[in-house]
């Protein structure tokens, strides 16, 4: 796994990585960098689908239903992410991980299996 965002490092990812840990702040930035990674892979004759893509979806602990986290993760998956990190930016309350499973992960798994 190589974390990268700049052009030179995307070339390193294309040549050496099995997993690219995207350093993207937005869905659009993830799409753009992923497209550039495809180009870098094609330049060296590598199948871009052999590089898994890890992206981060932020989770707002103040949300009542976690809809925006689910939407963010869905968007990243639709844009090609194969691994998602659900990132909280502070300590989470007891029971919160169960909520992530019930309200984000399980619904997305159901959508992807359909």
Brief synopsis:
With 114 residues, the protein is an alpha/beta fold.
How would you portray this structure in words?
By secondary structure, the protein is of the alpha/beta class. The chain has a single domain (2-113), classed as Alpha-Beta Barrel (TIM Barrel). The protein has helices at 7-16, 27-43, 67-78, 96-113; strands spanning 2-4, 19-22, 52-58, 83-87. A four-stranded parallel beta sheet has the order 1-2-3-4. Strand 3, helix 3 and strand 4 (83-87) form a beta-alpha-beta unit. It is elongated and about 45 Å long.
The portion of residues forming beta strands comes to 15-25%
Quickly count the domains. Answer: 1
Helicity level: 40-55%
- The CATH topology annotation reads as TIM Barrel
Query: Biggest sheet: strands side by side, in what order?
Result: 1-2-3-4
Largest sheet: 4 strands, parallel
Q: Name the poorly predicted regions.
A: none
CATH architecture: Alpha-Beta Barrel
Q: What is the 3D form?
A: elongated
Number of strands: 4
Instruction: Tell me the distance between the termini.
Output: 30 Å
Q: Radius of gyration, Cα only, in angstroms?
A: 15 Å
Please tag this protein with its features:
single chain, alpha/beta, 114 residues, 4 helices, TIM Barrel, 17% strand, 4-stranded parallel beta sheet
């Amino acid at each position: 796994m190589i974390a990268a965002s700049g052009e030179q490092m995307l070339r390193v990812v294309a040549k050496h990585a099995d997993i690219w840990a995207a350093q993207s702040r937005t869905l659009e930035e993830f799409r753009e960098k992923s497209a550039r990674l495809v180009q870098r892979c094609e330049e060296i004759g590598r199948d871009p689908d052999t590089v898994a893509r890890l992206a981060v979806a932020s989770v707002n602990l103040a949300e009542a239903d976690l809809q925006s986290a689910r939407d963010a993760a869905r968007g990243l998956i639709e844009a090609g992410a194969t691994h998602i990190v659900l990132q909280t930016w502070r300590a989470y309350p007891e029971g919160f991980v169960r909520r992530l499973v019930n309200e984000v992960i399980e619904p997305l798994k159901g959508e992807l299996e359909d």
